[in-house]
Please model this.
Amino acid sequence: MGTTAPETLLICEHCDTVYRRRPLARGDVARCACCHAELERHQRLSVSALLALVLTAMIVFVQANMWPIVTLGLNGQLSGATLWGTIIVMWQQQAQVVAVLAAGTLFFFPLVKMLLLGWLLWFARLGRRAPGFVPMMVTLHYLQPWTMSEVFVLGALVAIVKAHLYFDVVADPGIYAYAALTLLITIFAGVDLRQLWELTPEDQA
Amino acid sequence: MSALPRAAELGLIGCHVCGLVCADAPGHAEAGDALACPRCGSALHRRKPDSYVRTWALMIAAFLLYIPANVLPIMRTASLNDIDDNTIISGVVELWVKGSPDLAIIVFTASIVVPMLKFLSLGTLLVSSQRGSGWARPQRAKLYRLVEFIGYWSMLDVFVVALLTALVRFGLLSLVEPLPGVIFFGLTVVLTMLASMSFDPRLIWDGRDFDD
Model:
């Protein structure tokens, strides 16, 4: 049960139609003729550029987590919230399920994703497969749908507007860090990480 | 229906995880032993295993949790002289009335329209695919991709409640607390996401021969 020329064939994940792969020019997107799902797109970002973006995302992520997101004022009293402050309060308020969901989708999963990507891309830049390449790629695949930072940004906006009815609201640097993070996530949404399988040669181990 | 070759007909399997095109070993499904992808080691399946049963089960579970998520209040706002319990709908109404109809629409879409759309769409996809229907296949394929894409935005209201709880801590003057509805709602979103992931869009294109 060997491999049937992995580079030449491509199967549409949405309808099982088989295609012969064709080289894509800049800006090209290959679509399935049967179900119109995207098959692959030209990857304009090099490994180095991706690595730079991941490092940027890491820095922004640290800022987004350390800095308070919003501060409320009421009669001179101030009350701010960071992401972890929010998670801890939810845990204390008998909403542990929500605390765990928030900690996973807003902190641990994005963190693991960035660390794994950084590691894989660092080695890919040297033309090698990183130690632990295969399990890491599989982990990344399963983590993919479970990071929700961009939803949190919209949630923060809604919370600000709601709080604005009763309190003085000051947007803190954390919200800007989150906005930057959302921008980076959007760029990464167009990146097909499966290219790493082909970019790096398999070890003869 | 189309002249395009399909992997199952050619004896090929695409790996769900890494996308590698692998040769199918005839008879492996009957033997019951799983075939592994030579590149990433994941189990290979012609179709996602037990797709119909799993998707139905997860979707029904999600729907059952969606009822308390809407009926029970998700958030309590307490101040000196009054306590106000909000459900998802009353939160939307409050946003609308107090001057942010645009955000009210966003929250309404994320919390009500998206989950309902997911239930209806997945239900439609399940029933039509199980019947091997050839009706509107490209549109159904598109519907599935839409469901996958918008699903996680429903988490919006959960994050709003979490943030408000963390922010509004002014002791007796003003306090926000999460209420059980928000937990049910969070679980609903997770279950609908799992449901749409376990549905195999290839089933839309299969005839009756692939029914399990």
